[in-house]
Design goal:
The structure holds two protein chains of two kinds. By secondary structure, chain A is an all-alpha fold. Chain A has helices at residues 2-15, 24-44, 60-67, 71-101, 107-119, 122-132, 139-146, 161-186, 190-198, 203-214, 216-232, 235-240, 252-261, 265-296, and strands at 47-49, 54-56. Chain A has a two-stranded antiparallel sheet with strand order 1-2. The chains are: A mainly alpha, B alpha/beta. Chain A binds chain B through residues 48, 50-53, 55, 60, 64, 67, 69, 134-136, 153, 155-158, 242-248, 258-264, 266-267, and chain B through 73-74, 76-77, 80-81, 83-84, 102, 104, 107-108, 188, 191, 247-248, 250-251, 392-393, 396-397, 399-400, 403, 405-406, 414, 417, 421-422, 424-425, 427.
């Protein structure tokens, strides 16, 4: 009897050599900096809050948030933006990846060149491109004018503005996608290509039959990462168009930010709770799905 | 080692100096540092620099330090956050009217009702810094008008007359367009500048519907259903449809607009008159080419100005130097204070302190502006001073109307919904 308890105690101690309260410092930080703000924000989303005082108003903020006329517009824009940016990053990133793993001159230099925009501050990129895309004095349209092309108003034409911002996002983010693809392509064993060459496969066939399927984990990672960052996108859009002209480039995050700016603190907190739930419902299942894929592989 | 000794002696010496310094000043009047928080607009900074210098010359024991903050909604949040966290400097400058009412004055601001300087402040200003029946603010800068800045050279060259009705205004626009000059300047990069057609039209609205402001606050009058109020939106669309705008209206900003109207690259710029100060600084040589008129309405006999009251100075309850802060505020709200501001930025409009005069050599646009204040009934405060409710999205909506993205009727309905949102957040009775 006594021996079994002792051995159980020993086996427990064997599992974790450290006492539980070693978790305490991390737990304190987690509770103070993450859990508490989150719970208070759940509370404040149920109030009318002026920063000076708050009064409990139940679910009125959520009702108001879903009445927001630009919510649907913001949602569709968010989706369009996420799909366009992640799609382009996959295609262009894959092309760059293949190109930069082949035997070309100045390969390392070109790789760092492609990666460079990732390192620059997003707001800086936004402001720079706002200047470059100016309809009359911008470098882009002035260069087009040399060839006799009348360039469009990139950021002020309502049908173009969102796509223009998405293109800048791709310019800035494609370096990261390329790096992931390079890592994926490099890890494909060379023997497959040699065997394919002996069988007489062309370069295109090698790409479609070997590179594409075997680089699939890299593709999935790029899609997932760029889709999430597309859903959360705010800084680039805000620094380039502030959701304008009018409301044409509003995404959910900018709708919420404008409510905060207007002093609707309770309402914008409710919006953030909605955004949190929305991203969770998209990302958590995706994460579980991919995690399972990775372990089975 | 040698360095360490040196450092130690230095610290000791410094300590001795501070002790002696403290001892001597405590016999004289104690030196006080006052921090003043203002917005970063060039004319505000220049004016405050001069005010602080003149005040310090008279009061050597008080030292003024100036801190600036962004203007617009970013500044609104900063003011509210600093008040809520008790970190507001001793004196700060902020809007009057509806934005002032969001500050919870009774709890956060020092009561200035019984200060002697209030006797010389105009009653029209007192109404916009009042909460309950206590006063919390003092006037700084001058009254403004919302209307049209126009290029006088173009008017002289084409033989045009200042319009008093919308029809005349449109006729002038047609003539100017025919002469190859863009008649109306819009600058949607700074989207707030798009609101003037609606906001500055309020004199015309209330001349037809005198009780609009009250009924609007009580959820009874709507922009979409009031024939007078919706005109601001329809007229903005009219201008766009007629092709009267400058080509780069979508990407130009306030500074571009002011340059265009000063240099005659465009004829009319709907604007608030505080911008005259910027023209006086940035385009000094053209300041006499710029004039001003109120946004015209339907009836020439009922032509008048929508006026904006100047910002106020407030003292937070948390200040440690209440007496000195009051002294500084009283100085600014005096005739000396007005003169000091005129010296720094020139005359920009009527001051809110009795006895303050505008020099005869003021720019023509300022003289045009002041003429509306000389006769009673020729001006009315803008809606944001008569009602606590102003929808926060108006500037995006007017950008859409002004660039032909949204129809006026649709825009007015959308704005009514925006107003409802604000009213609910302010918990104003009669809204649900």
């Amino acid at each position: 009897m006594e021996t079994t308890t002792i051995s159980r105690a020993i086996s427990n101690r064997m599992k974790s050599p450290y006492p539980g309260w070693f978790y305490l410092p991390a737990a304190v930080i987690f509770v103070v900096l993450f859990l508490m703000p989150m719970l208070t924000s759940f509370y404040f989303s149920l109030t009318r809050w002026t920063l000076f005082e708050s009064s409990f108003i139940g679910l009125d903020n959520f009702a108001q948030f879903f009445r927001e006329p630009f919510l649907i517009k913001g949602l569709t824009n968010t989706l369009i933006y996420a799909v366009v940016t992640s799609g382009l990053k996959v295609i262009i990133g894959m092309l760059f990846g293949v190109f930069l793993t082949s035997r070309i001159m100045a390969r390392t230099y070109l790789r760092s060149l492609v990666f460079f925009p990732v390192l620059v501050s997003t707001v800086g990129v936004g402001i720079t491109f706002t200047v470059l895309m100016h309809p009359t004095h911008g470098l882009i349209n002035e260069s087009l004018a040399v060839f006799g092309i009348d360039g469009p108003a990139w950021l002020t034409d309502p049908s173009l503005a969102l796509l223009s911002v998405a293109l800048v996002d791709v310019w800035k983010g494609v370096g990261l996608a390329t790096m992931i693809f390079i890592a994926g392509i490099v890890s494909i064993p060379k023997e497959y290509y040699e065997a394919a060459k002996i069988e007489g496969a062309t370069a295109t066939q090698q790409f479609w039959r070997i590179t594409m399927p075997l680089a699939r984990p890299a593709t999935v990672t790029v899609i997932l990462l760029s889709f999430i960052s597309g859903l959360r996108s705010f800084d680039l859009i805000w620094s380039m168009t502030r959701g304008g002209p009018g409301f044409t480039t509003d995404v959910i995050a900018s709708v919420i930010y404008k409510q905060y700016q207007a002093g609707f603190y309770g309402l914008s907190t409710a919006g953030n709770v909605v955004l949190f739930l929305l991203i969770s419902t998209i990302v958590v299942p995706l994460f579980i799905f991919l995690d399972r894929k990775a372990t089975t592989q | 080692m040698k360095n360490q000794i040196k450092l130690r002696t230095l610290i000791a010496a410094l300590g001795a100096v501070t002790i002696i310094g403290a001892a001597t000043t405590s016999f004289a009047a104690p030196a006080v540092n006052l921090t003043v928080l203002i917005d970063n607009q060039p004319h505000t900074v220049k004016g405050m620099d001069q005010l602080a210098a003149d005040f310090m010359a008279k009061n050597p024991n008080i030292k003024i330090e100036i801190e600036t903050r962004p203007a617009g909604t970013e500044g609104d949040n900063m003011i509210k956050t600093r008040l809520a966290t008790d970190e507001m400097p001793d004196v700060f400058l902020y809007n009057t009217g509806s934005l002032f009412h969001a500050l919870n004055a009774a709890r956060t601001l020092a009561d200035l009702t019984d200060e002697p300087f209030q006797a010389n402040v105009l009653d029209s200003f007192k109404t916009v810094v009042k909460e309950g029946n206590r006063l919390y603010g003092a006037p700084i800068q001058t009254g403004m008008g919302g209307g049209i800045l126009y290029n006088r050279k173009i008017y002289a060259k084409l033989g045009l007359k200042v319009p008093t009705t919308w029809a005349q205004f449109q006729k002038n626009n047609a003539t100017i367009k025919a002469a190859g000059i863009p008649p109306v300047i819009q600058t949607f990069k700074d989207s707030w500048t798009s609101q003037l057609f609606v906001l500055a039209d309020f004199y015309n609205v209330q001349s037809v519907e005198p009780d609009f402001a009250d009924r609007y606050t009580q959820n009874k009058a709507k922009y979409a259903t009031s024939p007078a109020a919706i005109k601001g939106f329809t007229r903005q669309e009219e201008i766009f449809k007629a092709g009267y705008l400058n080509k780069d209206f979508g990407s130009a900003g306030l500074e571009d607009g002011l340059r265009m109207v000063a240099k005659g690259e465009g004829a009319h710029y709907p604007m608030l008159t505080f911008a005259i100060g910027t023209i006086a600084t940035d385009h000094k040589e053209n300041i006499n080419d710029v004039g001003f008129f109120a946004l015209p309405g339907d009836d020439a006999s009922k032509n008048g100005l929508t006026a904006w009251l100047p910002p106020g100075l407030y003292i937070p309850k948390t200040t440690k130097h209440l007496a000195e802060a009051k002294k500084f505020v009283a100085f600014i709200a005096s005739i000396e204070g007005c003169d000091s501001q005129t010296k720094a930025v020139g005359a920009m409009g009527p001051y809110m302190v009795k006895g303050c005069e505008i020099p005869a050599n003021a720019p023509p646009a300022v003289i045009d502006l002041v003429s509306y204040f000389k006769t009673d009934g020729k001006n009315t405060p803008a809606l944001e001073f008569l009602s606590p409710i102003k929808g926060p999205s108006l500037e995006q909506i007017t950008v859409e109307v002004g660039s032909g993205i949204r129809k006026p009727a649709d825009a007015a309905t959308l704005y009514d919904e925006d107003v409802r949102k604000q009213a609910l957040q302010l918990a104003i009775p009669g809204w649900k």
